[in-house]
Structures are given as structure tokens and as C-alpha cells.
Predict the structure.
Amino acid sequence: MLNPKTAQRKNRQSANLPSGTEPDQSGSLNTKDMRRVLGSSLIGSIIEYYDFVLYATAASLVFDRVFFANLGPGLSLFASFATLAVGYVARPLGGIVFGHFGDRLGRKQMLVLSMLMMGGATVLIGLLPTTAQLGVAAPVVLVLLRVIQGISVGGEWGGATLMAMEHAPAKKRGFAAAFANAGGPAGGLLATLAVSAASAATGDQFLVWGWRIPFLLSAVLILIGMVIRLKVAETPVFRKLDAEAAKIQRPPLMEVLRHHPRLVLVTLVATLGFYACQGLLTVWGVSEAVANGVDRSGVLNWKGVAAVVTVGVCFYSARLSDRIGRRAVLTGAGIAGILLAYPLILLVSNGTMWGFAVAVVVGNGVVQGALAGPVGAYISEQFPTGVRYTGASLSYQGASMVGAGFTPMIATGLVLVAGGSVWAVAVFWIAVLAAGVVAVRRTREGSGLKLDAV
């Protein structure tokens, strides 16, 4: 691997590339290069999040019975969600490590590495013997593989978002960045459909071996993603870093913590509501609905419908943020979530398919989708190019750790403390969304800024 100085010198030299090697900056996303960039960001993120969300679905439906069955119903589910949380805890670490080298060596190399790590870990989970077969080593290995998943996806988001956004025309950055964020729900949809199909096809054997099929399919998806990702050029903004950037000896993380600590914290809080929607509705909510007697296949199918809605709303809200600003869209979506939180939580837990369907489509599809659209550009526009990968990844992945990684565990604990009632979960969700709205209002509007002048 190149050292930072050599890599930066080569990247500056590569700015003088032949015509056609850089995407068109004239204002259109409909060029050959931009289509390739956006396709790479979307498909790469879909594959990464397929693997990551697949684990979350399995944690809700499978792992408590396969790897933690000896703990009893309540504790086994809690333990399963704890392994889910481990992956989210590892995501900031991935953001730091990949952000460091992404800011020093370039975005593209890190995206290739993150995909290889994610695919390998997911396939190994699909091959992992159960606790009954391997003993206590099985859940230990499961946790280690989940850590690798977390590190990988922690590096993926920042690179995929910046790859799209730094190539895009200034007035369409929000829409371009949304291609990376849309990969999350799209990958979640693909994972949900894969688990649903495996469940339907294997029936009673699903908990025996059928659950492994979606994990093993990851090997095919990774090969497809690698072919697409290797064809994309480094971003023009990164290649245009001037000679002064090469003189900075401090690691990007140190630069971020020294000059932008408040910005990391505020953007982290601003992103929490987005991830709380995901953790409460697509992880805890799935488990809650199934535990209250709702058909498992139906729950997974409606979760898939919600993912489709999320993708559509994500792109719409991102395009809207290019017109009226990131802060306006994020504020409106946060307020809508606050008003809907309590009724949606009641619907999730009422033991009916229609209740879960309405809750997950509105809460996950509409509210989370509206928050997801602008958030990639919103965070990235707050940081300068030299530390953008690190700064944006640190705040976004920190929010993912708290907002999605711990909310299923927190919700489960709140229900236990409240004697089976779900009102405390709604209060928790409202508080997170309200904090996010306040944080958004405390930051600048970045949609009109030039990236190389931030």
C-alpha cells in the first residue's frame, strides 16, 4: 500500500487525466461517467447493506433459537440483539480506519476493501456451526464475524456517499448522495425477500439449515459488486487537493477532533432519529409483532414493502433538499416522526398484520425515508475535503451505533421495565427525534456551498 505522501502526489498527478475520464460537471447526472458512479454507489451499498441487514433479520427470527436457545426466551432474544449491537459498535471504528486511509489514499481503494471484508464475514456466518454443534465457541465466532461486518459497513457509507457526491454537479449533490443511502433500504429489501423466500421454501427446516441460504448467496453478490466498483475513477474533488494538503502530517482523525469536535457531535445527534426508526421498526418491531402472534412471512413481506417505499421517499426527499435545503427537509421529517411515534408503536404491538403493516410502511417507509434522503449530503457538506471521509463517517457511524445498534435492546429493556407496556418505547423514540430536530437547526445549510471551499 502506498504511503500517504506518495498516494497524495499520485492523486494530484492523476488530475491531469485524458478527456472523458472525469464525470461531466456541467450540471447533468445523465452522462456515461455519472451513471457509472451512481450505479456503483447504489449497487455497492445494496450489497453491503444486504449483508448487514440480513444479520439484523436473522437476529430477530433465528439467532436467539440457534445460538442462544439455552438462555430462555427473554434473555436469548436480548443476547441475540446484543450481538446485533456489536456490529453497530464496530461501525465507528470502521469509519475511523477507512476514513483515515480514504482521506489519505482515496475513496475507491477503501470501497473495494470494505466489500471484500463484508462478503467474507457474511459467507462465514452462513457456514458457522450452531451452539449445539460447536459449543460456546459458536456465539464467540458469531460476534467476531459481526465485528468484521460492522467495520466494513462503517467504511462503506462514507466512501460510497463521497464517491457519488464529489463527482456530482453542485446543484444535484443531495440527489447523487442519496444513491448511497438508498442502498440501505434496497439492501434491506433484498435481505428480507431472501429470508422470506428461504423461510417459505424450507418450512420447518428453516431454523435447521434454511436460514443459511441468504448468507451464502452473498458470495455471488460480492463478485457482481466488485466488477462494477473496480471500473469507477477516483473523485475529482479528492484529486484536486492542493499541495498544502500533503503537508498535513496529523492523521485525519486528529484533525477532526481538534478542529471539528462540536460538528461531529451535532451531526451525530441530527442523524439519530433516522437510525432509531430503523432499529425500532425493522428489528425490535419485527420481533414484537411475531411474538404477539403475527405471521412471520407476512411480517417479512410488509417489511419488504416498507423498504420499497423508503427508497422512493429517499430519492424524493433528497431531490427536494437540493431545491429547498437539507435542514428544511430534515426538520419537517423529524417533526412528522414526533407526531406519529406513539400511534405507530401501538400499532406494531397490537398483534395484527394490518397494524404492523401501517406502522412499518409509515414509520420506516415515509418518516425514515424522508430523513434518509438528505442526510448523506447534509453531513458530508459540513466537513472539508481533506477530512470529509473521516468526519462524515465518524458522525454517521456514531449515530448508527447508538440509534440502530442499541435501540432494539433499549426497547426490549423498556418493555420489561414497564411490565409489558410499550408507552416507554414511544417516549424514547420521541425524545430521539426531538433531539435530532434541535441539532439540525444548530448547523449551517450546506446545499449552496462549494465542496472545495468548505
Notes: Residues 4-26 have pLDDT under 50 and may be disordered. The longest helix spans residues 73-105. The CA atoms of residues 281 and 360 lie 6 Å apart.
